[in-house]
Specification:
By secondary structure, the chain is mainly alpha-helical. The protein has one domain: Protein Binding, DinI Protein, Chain A (2-Layer Sandwich), CATH 3.30.910. It has helices spanning about 5-25, 35-40, 45-80, 85-140, 160-170; strands spanning about 30, 145. α3 (about 45-80) packs antiparallel against α4.
């Protein structure tokens, strides 16, 4: 084997080392984003939460009316229970306990449904925010963006205001899911 043939791998290794050294000496552009601030202040989050509140408002009103009715029945039973016949009072107490159990089950179901739907909506918003952060970073030529876990960053590295400004230019409602994605149905109670 000739000396030239044996020196090709060495030459390639040297060129790779030179390329890496040049890349390492290039200035890395870094950004830091406060994801929690974005999540709290983004118009898309606010719209999603208003929509969620609107979706569950009828059930919430029904539960509040049911709770008020139960309080009134309980107060009436306490006030007039001593004047009732034993059988009538026992029947009224039993009916009240049944209604209270029904109320507690409905309230628990309501909380579970709100929680599940809130988590789903926040997941969608977080996914959207992540995509917007990536788009912003690319448009500003950033090499890396840090989020949670940063304990200190100079203001000049904080891209949160820029990303938030970008979000303000976007529609407040999230884009529809791609075709074929699972559509959610509102809770039916």
């Amino acid at each position: 084997m000739s000396t030239f043939t044996r020196s090709i791998p060495l030459l390639a290794l040297c060129l790779c080392g030179l390329a890496v050294a040049q890349g390492a000496s290039a200035q890395t552009k870094i950004g830091v984003v406060n994801f929690q601030q974005l999540l709290q202040e983004a118009p898309q989050t606010k719209t999603a939460m208003r929509s969620l509140q609107k979706e569950f408002a009828p059930r919430q009103r029904a539960l509040l009316a049911m709770q008020s009715d139960l309080k009134a029945k309980n107060a009436n039973l306490e006030k007039n229970g001593q004047m009732m016949a034993d059988a009538e009072r026992i029947k009224a107490e039993s009916a009240l306990r049944d209604e209270q159990s029904d109320f507690q089950a409905k309230a628990h179901s309501f909380q579970d449904d709100v929680s599940a739907q809130r988590n789903e909506e926040l997941g969608k918003v977080q996914h959207f925010l992540l995509a917007q952060i990536q788009d912003y970073a690319r448009s500003k030529g950033l090499d890396i963006v840090f989020g949670d876990g940063v304990f200190f960053a100079k203001e000049s590295y904080d891209i949160t205001p820029g990303v938030l400004a970008l979000l303000m230019t976007k529609p407040a409602t999230l884009p529809e899911a791609p075709a074929g994605a699972k559509k959610r149905g509102g809770p039916q109670h």
